[in-house]
Specification:
Blueprint lengths: L2 E4 L9 E6 L5 E8 L2 E6 L5 E6 L4 E8 L4 E10 L8 E7 L4 E7 L3 E6 L5 E6 L1
Antiparallel strand pairs: 1-2, 2-3, 4-5, 5-6, 6-7, 8-9, 9-10, 10-11
Length: 126
Amino acid sequence: MPIYSSNMSSEDGTKGSLFKLSKDGLVSKHADKIGVSNGLCWSHDNTKFYFIDSFTRCMYVFDYDVQLGTIDNKRVALDFQKEQINGVPDGMTIDSNGNLWIACFDGYQVQKNKTLNLAVQENWNL
């Protein structure tokens, strides 16, 4: 599996990019206009790649091709502002049941989200 990484845009949230480091050492850009990259993880069936941009307060989902190690078809999976969720999405992981767990900076909470409908299932206020 390739390694994905990004740089941040501290100015206006549009200058960051998401890069892939392939096993042959080549680096390629796969997404741009990223603010503050956080929370990278894959679905258990390796068909979805989840990604948080803290600057936009959104979690995005891409289609993932495990054979090529590429991402495509970026779309908003969860918009914290639209859904009126407190805080800024930050770190994220996926558990053995396929639930996404999102830590929220300045919102004092951790969320459990079902990957099938991405609705907030549980909230833990800290």
